[in-house]
Every structure is written in C-alpha cells, then in structure tokens.
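Fill-in record for Apolipoprotein N-acyltransferase.
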Amino acid sequence: MSGGALRTRAGRPIPSAVASTSPSRGGTGDEPEAAGGRRGTAPGRGEGFAPPDAVARLFTWLAGLPPRRALAAALALGLLSALALPPLHAVLVLLLAVPGLLALLGAATSWRRAGRLGLAWGFGHSLGGLYWVTEALLTDPARWWWLVPLAAPALAAVMALYAVPPALAAWFLPPGWRRLAGFAGAWTFAEMLRSVLFTGFPWNPRTHPAGTAFPDPRVR
C-alpha cells in the first residue's frame, strides 16, 4: 500500500479509517453525488496513522462497498464488537470493529447514509450483547414463548439509536483528531442519555470492555 493513497472502487482517494475524506454538504442527503464532489485533504495534514497493509486493504474494501453492502458490513462489525462483552471479553475485536465503522462513515456520501450505518452497527452490537434476554424468557416458556423471537431484536432496535449521534459526528467533522474527538465525545454523550431515557438501561455500556483490558486491582 506504499507509494500512493488508498482508493475506493470509484477512484476517490481515501486514507485510513481514522482519517477519511468527508462528503460535500448540502442537499437532501440521498441524491447521488457528482464525481469530484468530495472534499479532499491537504497533503500532510489530517492523515492520521498508517495502518498495516492488510488492515489498510480491509478498510479500502469497506469504503468501496455499495450502500446496501456497507449496511451489512456495519451490522457485521457491530455483531463482532459484541464479542468484547462478557462472557468472552475479546477486547481486541474492537480494534477492527470501531475503525471499520469509521472507514464506512468516511466513505458515506450523505449524512443520512452515515446515520443508517451507525444504526446498523448499533443494532448488531446490541443484538449480540442482549442474547441473554431470551434465556430469561425461557424460564417460563409456556407463558412467554411468543416474546422469544421479539424481545432481543426489539431492545436492540431501541439501543441502536444511541449509535447514531457518534456516527453523524464522525461524518460531519473533518478527518484527523477532530473526527476522533467528536466521535468519542458524541458516544460518551449518547451513553449518558442512555442512562436516563426510556427509564435507563444499564446493561452493556460501551466502556465495559475497558474494565477488562485495564482492570482495577482494587475491584474484586
């Protein structure tokens, strides 16, 4: 991957997942974008880190996906991120799941597509982390059997809404540290809202894997 910028299938240059170009603003958000309508970045500025070649190729592939496949990829990355939650604690998957989402967002051609990508990622993450709801219903299957196929997806659909603000923040902000700071800040704010809205839902906080990766010896 050395010797030139990564490019999407449409021939537009894209940097890494952390630093991707942003679509031009305006319009309804769903119309096709004219060639050359994306805003580029000045050489040497906002390019972020350079990932390994294999990871860079993956991000290039993600950024080049058509809209429907991009939504499917966002859903898959969200499901992958749920592996970082108990009982598996596979924290390292977040190094792919979160930058992969940023790669998809950087290639989105409208804020509406970015919002849908965040929604798909959030749905996958919440669905993968709320499997235990079905187990709780099976304690009395004769009474609650009809809720088994509905409970986890319904909860996940609501929880997915909280992934939309960080997705939109990442899309609107320029690449580099501003995008990362805005993405993290919006996600923190969304988590604060999640603790209050709809009576609050304390399960599966996004910071839970951090407690596994960096345990506090004072907590037993």
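KEY FINDING: The CA atoms of residues 85 and 208 lie 7 Å apart.
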